[in-house]
Amino acid sequence: MVKVGDPIPDVELAEGSPGNKVNLRETLSNGKGVIVGVPAAFSPGCSNTHIPGYINAANLSDAGEVYVVSVNDAFVMKAWGTGLDPTGKSKIHFVADPSGAFTKEWDVDFDASALLGNYRSKRYAVKVDGGKVVSVHVEPDNTSVNVSAADKVLA
Fold first, then answer.
1. Is 58 in the active site?
2. Three-state secondary structure string covering the chain
3. pLDDT at 117
4. How much is the pTM?
5. Which of 14, 35, 41, 46 is the catalytic position?
6. Shortest CA distance to 45 belongs to which of 117, 111, 122?
7. Which of 48, 86, 122, 146 has the most CB atoms within 10 Å of its CB?
8. Predicted pLDDT at 153
């Protein structure tokens, strides 16, 4: 599983559309940021609690670039991000990991087939600086909103 000192996976993700490729290793190589993994866009825990906590965090701008990653397609992530933050005031990026390659590389995937139809991401938040992991907050049961909540990660 992802740990302090690990590099950000060198994997292409998609933001907004499948053709708009984003590589977080490159994007966050010289600065700080937070990568938030969620099991399912539009699910109650993700939409009602977890991501709104980041969007509304008073100290969000101190975190650097913030990316929400889900094993989903770019269109779903775009619609979800627009629904949660219609004006884009938070500047949070909603990116798709359609094949789960990013999620697998950090070993934060789990079999959610019974509920969500395939392997998904555990709920987590990882703080990075200079392309390396500086703190890890993975939910022990994969889906709760506790250790990965904005008030704990951004404190």
1. no
2. CCCCCCECCCCEEECCCCCCEEEHHHHCCCCEEEEEEECCCCCHHHHHHHHHHHHCCCCHHHHCEEEEEECCCHHHHHHHHHHHCCCCCCCCEEEECCCCHHHHHCCCEEECHHHHCCEEECCEEEEEECCEEEEEEECCCCCCCCCCCHHHHCC
3. 87
4. 0.97
5. 46
6. 122
7. 122
8. 98
